[in-house]
Amino acid sequence: MNISENAEAILNKIEQKYASIDQKTETHLEGLLWSKPITYWDYIQTDALLNMQTQRTTLPDEMVFIMYHQVNELIFKMILWEMNQISYCQNIKTEFFAERLMRISRYFDMLTTSFSIMENGMEVEQYMKFRNTLTPASGFQSAQYRLIEFSSTDLINLIDNRYRGSIDRNTPYEHAFEHLYWQAAGKDYATGKKSYLLEEFEKKYKKTFLDHMEEYNSINIWQKFKQLPDSDQKNPELIQAMRHFDHTVNITWVMQHLNVAIKYIDQSGKGTGEATGGSDWKKYMHPKYQRRIFFPELWSADELANWGVEI
């Protein structure tokens, strides 16, 4: 049997691969005889993916709402995938950091522009009917979005602005968790009582969040940026890329979300104007109230003072 030099070289590499894990090459090669050829639909799991949309009503536009949010969650997963590469890169180089950062920014740019699908892709009448079946669920309960925040910046920048003076890097994570900015959407700080929305969210994800907060305390995007050479940290293009990411996530994307909510919930003249999760959504969602800024060191005093305010 004649074997080409290229085929022989490949077989030698396969032999080395399986030898390194104490496996018999012949066994794995014979397995190829019985394996099925891969298809697009098997590889992408198309059938499973397309059967994950379950409506709670008979209103057609509810399907748009479901699929749009599922797409968002897939994009969030892509963002976390890139963030993980940055965070766990040893001796990170500026080129690698910048390239992955731009991937993340492009994903968020896409999320931002995609809000037109929600804004113009559903009839107000239909939305105001099927949203009543969603109570008390809320987009607030996207766990992946919270993980993105923890992966982006030092924890102090996610603390409710009213309590940052009493929290530092030595504060127990449990205490810091109780003062994250998004707690304001479902917690009465005067009484300590939490809404059902927040209680259920924490039952499901609190341990995951606390673990992630600790894990990314020293390897978040900001901390990895600070590991780059000083000259690169002062590079105008890299600084602009960091600022673009910060502004897109914490102002542009948030404002697009808020404006869509205003159109359907506040300006439609239908319903009570209340959020499905029961939060004071107009105040909670606006960036000038959230004061969430991933990289405050990269913004001027004037920019920080007017964060989220249209000038």
UniProtKB/TrEMBL annotation:
The keyword Ubl conjugation appears for this protein: no
Molecular function (Gene Ontology), one example: metal ion binding
DNA-binding among keywords: no
Record SUPFAM superfamilies: Indolic compounds 2,3-dioxygenase-like (SSF140959)
Coiled-coil boundaries: none
InterPro entries: Trp/Indoleamine_2_3_dOase-like, Trp_2_3_dOase
Keyword annotations from UniProtKB, A to Z: Dioxygenase, Oxidoreductase
Pfam families: Trp_dioxygenase (PF03301)
Signal peptide residues on this chain, from the entry's feature table: none
Gene Ontology biological-process entries: L-tryptophan catabolic process to acetyl-CoA; L-tryptophan catabolic process to kynurenine
Protein name stated in the entry: Tryptophan 2,3-dioxygenase apoenzyme
Taxonomy of the source species: Bacteria, Pseudomonadati, Bacteroidota, Flavobacteriia, Flavobacteriales
